[in-house]
Amino acid sequence: MEKKYKILLCEDDTNLGMVLKNYLELNDYDVTLERDGRLGLAAFQREKFDICLLDVMMPNMDGFTLAEEIRDVDPDIPLFFLSAKTMKEDIIQGYKLGADDYITKPFDSEVLLHKIKAILKRNEEMNREQENMEFDLGNFHFNPKLRELSIAGKTQTLSPKENELLRMLAEHKNDLLPREKALKKIWGSDTYFNGRSMDVYIAKLRKYLKEDENLEIVNIHGNGFRLVEKEV
Questions:
Q1: What does the pLDDT read at residue 185?
Q2: Taking 70 as the threshold, does the pLDDT of residue 232 lie above it?
Q3: Residue 60 in contact with residue 37, Cβ under 8 Å?
Q4: Residue 137 pLDDT more than 80?
Q5: What are the Cα distances from residue 10, in Å, to 37, 62, 107, 199?
Q6: I want to staple 227 with a disulfide (CB 3.0 to 4.6 A). Which of 3, 37, 155, 169 is the partner?
Q7: Is 218 left (phi over 0), alpha (psi -120 to 50) or beta?
Q8: Which of 94-103, 124-133, 136-145, 159-168 is least confident?
Q9: What is the H or E stretch that residue 149 is in?
Q10: Which helix (H) or strand (E) holds 62?
Q11: What is the end-to-end Cα distance of the chain in Å, rounded?
């Protein structure tokens, strides 16, 4: 069965929001519609989405501020601004915040649909490439596709969650892996209980990696984890 992509749509214009939600759902997308930025952020923290469509002018939290909050959690999620603000400065600000597109109102829903399809297809291809990547971590060799972590002729087969968590740490090696990002990608949401579960898996990975004293998973309090490979 083909994957049903999830879209976070934040739009305070009730009529436009419902029309767009219905149109995207008719095209087989799962759409969560929120009418202000604060509710949009709460939805993003609660669920896992494949793309965000953000109106710029919204009550409680504008689209630019919401985008910054979203980017802090997931720097890679595709993000479109939908805006009546057509000034060059606003468009430039949108792209500076990491937008994949800035679409000015009024716009053609069919054109928007094809832009969404194109970026989601691009992301799928990138994800497939990442799935085939292997990593050298200190004296370890890590093959995520086979779920194998090897050192000195010994191989540990990882559980699916251990494997995905180590892959994300390896992709962010020596950099911060945000806690929320890992929780949402692997566990589906960042609840307290999922957070405790992730801590257990971090402890398991630390146990596996302790055979190389130059590798360490560091807890960055309140933010996430870093897989640190010390220079020898």
A1: 84
A2: no
A3: yes
A4: yes
A5: 7, 10, 16, 32
A6: 169
A7: beta
A8: 124-133
A9: strand 148-151
A10: none
A11: 48
